[in-house]
Amino acid sequence: MGFYDTIILDIEGTVCSIFFVQNVLFPYFLDKFPFLLEQVEFPLDHKGNVAMTQILAKFPERYTKSKECLTTYINELVANDIKDPTLKELQGIVWQAGYEEGEIVVNLYDDVIEALDRWNKEGKSVYIYSSGSIKAQKLLFSHVKFKNEIRDLTNHVKGYYDPTVVGSKIESKSYEHILNDINKDPESAIFLSDNMKEVTASTQAGIKSFVVIRPGNTVRYHNPSLDFVDCFDNL
Ligand SMILES: CSCCC(=O)C(=O)COP(=O)(O)O
Ligand SMILES: [Mg+2]
């Protein structure tokens, strides 16, 4: 692999286990979000000025006619792991309370923490590109459990991107947008994700990319045209 000074990282299935997102973050969200719906009146006033109303009003109007209907819709989005940007925005708001109250702490893979420290010492730049909202990304990296302490690793991350900012993670132009934003050539960057479509898209943008294998990931080694890694130690 040639020289690189820029690393773009996915989150779920790459730096943390998919089980953390599915068994910690999502259940926490499902338990708490109904209390947010209690704050607003239904049918939702899509021109209302209450902050929570404005967020919920981004969901399709056919689902915001009643609290019950919207609750069902949101539960279905989570159950199917739909990367809906309004859902991701709502999740970030709910998770913030969980992080701040100490109810959520993040287990990043040890090789990821070691790599972040190493890349930081080497002067390399790390960026995050996740379906999770930028708010949720920053919360995750600021509440990392490491040995017996909670570490804030946001000082190891130079920038954050999500699909609302640069576009779909499975379109190569999204990676071109990121490269343009950070003023980097594709040859100086690497991208790591558990999602083969994302890795294919970033590869098409000229970025050396790797499919990340972690326990529970659904990816299979069946695409010989892609490179695979199961840890960050040799990157
Ligand atoms: C930022 S923590 C929550 C992650 C999340 O909601 C998600 O959908 C992660 O998707 P990714 O693109 O990082 O695999
Ligand atoms: Mg992922």
TrEMBL record:
Cofactor, free-text remark: Binds 1 Mg(2+) ion per subunit.
Record carries keyword Magnesium: yes
Cofactor section: Mg(2+)
GO cellular component: cytoplasm; nucleus
Highest rank taxon of the organism: Eukaryota
Positions annotated to bind Mg(2+): 10, 12, 194
EC number: 3.1.3.77
GO biological process annotation, one example: L-methionine salvage from methylthioadenosine
GO molecular function: acireductone synthase activity; magnesium ion binding
Pfam families: Hydrolase
Keywords of the record: Amino-acid biosynthesis, Cytoplasm, Hydrolase, Magnesium, Metal-binding, Methionine biosynthesis, Nucleus
Segments crossing the lipid bilayer: none
CDD domains per the UniProt record, alphabetical: HAD_EP
Binding annotation for substrate: 130-131, 169
Biological pathway: Amino-acid biosynthesis; L-methionine biosynthesis via salvage pathway; L-methionine from S-methyl-5-thio-alpha-D-ribose 1-phosphate: step 3/6; Amino-acid biosynthesis; L-methionine biosynthesis via salvage pathway; L-methionine from S-methyl-5-thio-alpha-D-ribose 1-phosphate: step 4/6
Catalyzed reaction equations: 5-methylsulfanyl-2,3-dioxopentyl phosphate + H2O = 1,2-dihydroxy-5-(methylsulfanyl)pent-1-en-3-one + phosphate
Gene3D superfamilies per UniProt: 1.10.720.60, HAD superfamily/HAD-like (3.40.50.1000)
Record carries keyword Signal: no
EC main group: hydrolase
Entry function: Bifunctional enzyme that catalyzes the enolization of 2,3-diketo-5-methylthiopentyl-1-phosphate (DK-MTP-1-P) into the intermediate 2-hydroxy-3-keto-5-methylthiopentenyl-1-phosphate (HK-MTPenyl-1-P), which is then dephosphorylated to form the acireductone 1,2-dihydroxy-3-keto-5-methylthiopentene (DHK-MTPene).
Complexes and interactors: Monomer.
Family statement: Belongs to the HAD-like hydrolase superfamily. MasA/MtnC family.
Protein name: Enolase-phosphatase E1
Taxonomic source organism: Komagataella pastoris (Yeast)
Gene: UTR4
